[in-house]
Amino acid sequence: AQSVTQLDSQVPVFEEAPVELRCNYSSSVSVYLFWYVQYPNQGLQLLLKYLSGSTLVKGINGFEAEFNKSQTSFHLRKPSVHISDTAEYFCAVSLVSGGGADGLTFGKGTHLIIQP
Amino acid sequence: ETGVTQSPTHLIKTRGQQVTLRCSSQSGHNTVSWYQQALGQGPQFIFQYYREEENGRGNFPPRFSGLQFPNYSSELNVNALELDDSALYLCASTGQGSYNEQFFGPGTRLTVL
């Protein structure tokens, strides 16, 4: 079975500083990779996804992530954060072979706290 | 394009009762998945419906059941509620051939007393 580990439960960062949120996954088969953001009392919004091809993927709101197959990682980065980026961030995987029927497997989330 | 909607927003039930949560999928999406998100945790996959049939299920007991209707909307039913069922229940829809990219609704907050 696949699993996702988000190494940091909380990441405090000063406004306009860069940030990296770490995600590692475990799977014996190929996976698709996703990052979602959840603002307080809301559902999840897709930030970006890796399906195949270029390992550097760009998403919304200035976020990007890099897929590293050898390290089974998919870390999320932003060069300069804003107060509005304060939210919970979830990394998720989906089996390529499953056709989606296995759903998404999520990590426990990382709370990004932007300090003024 | 209409997004995923869920009702109700909040719900309070007592232990042993039954509950039905509802979801309307995003326009053009034919697959609906349900997730349970306990406080401070990531969402956990309950099951997925495609063409009115359950085609995938996570590690949840049979008292969690669902339906999908011809218009692709869906219901999640939970029988014999337990205190641990208190959570945010998220519905997500997926379009055909979209590599399991799921679009989430705002969720229903269920509290079991």
Brief write-up:
By secondary structure, chain A is mostly beta strands. Chain A has strands at 3-5, 10-14, 19-21, 24-26, 31-38, 44-50, 56-58, 64-68, 73-78, 87-95, 105-106, 110-115.
Protein architecture, described:
Chain A has strands at 3-5, 10-14, 19-21, 24-26, 31-38, 44-50, 56-58, 64-68, 73-78, 87-95, 105-106, 110-115. By secondary structure, chain A is an all-beta fold. In chain A, strands 2, 5, 6, 10, 11 and 12 form a 6-stranded mixed beta sheet that branches. A 4-stranded antiparallel beta sheet of chain A has the order 3-9-8-7, with no helix packed on it. The radius of gyration of chain A is 14 Å and the shape is globular. The model of chain A has no long low-confidence stretch (mean pLDDT 93). With 113 residues, chain B is mainly β. Chain B contains no helices and 11 strands. In chain B, the strands form 2 sheets. In chain B, strands 2, 4, 5, 6, 9, 10 and 11 form a 7-stranded mixed beta sheet that branches. A 4-stranded antiparallel beta sheet of chain B has the order 1-3-8-7, with no helix packed on it. In chain B, a hairpin with an 8-residue loop joins strand 9 (87-94) and strand 10 (103-104). The relative contact order of chain B is 0.33. The interface between A and B is medium-sized, with 26 and 28 residues.
Distance between the termini of chain A: 41 Å
Kindly name the structural category of chain B: mainly beta
**Beta content of chain B:** over 45%
Structural class of chain A: mainly beta
Low-confidence stretches of chain B: none
**Fraction in beta strands of chain A:** over 45%
Mean pLDDT of chain A: 93
Major beta sheet summary of chain A: 6 strands, mixed
Q: Stretches of chain A where pLDDT falls below 50 for ≥5 residues?
A: none
- N-to-C SSE series of chain A? EEEEEEEEEEEE
- Quick one: biggest sheet of chain B? 7 strands, mixed
Overall outline of chain B: globular
Give the H and E element order of chain B: EEEEEEEEEEE
> Tell me, what's the shape of chain A?
globular
Which bin fits the share of residues in helices of chain B? under 10%
**Count of separate DSSP helical elements of chain A:** 0
- What is the number of E strands of chain B? 11
Mean of residue pLDDT of chain B? Answer: 93
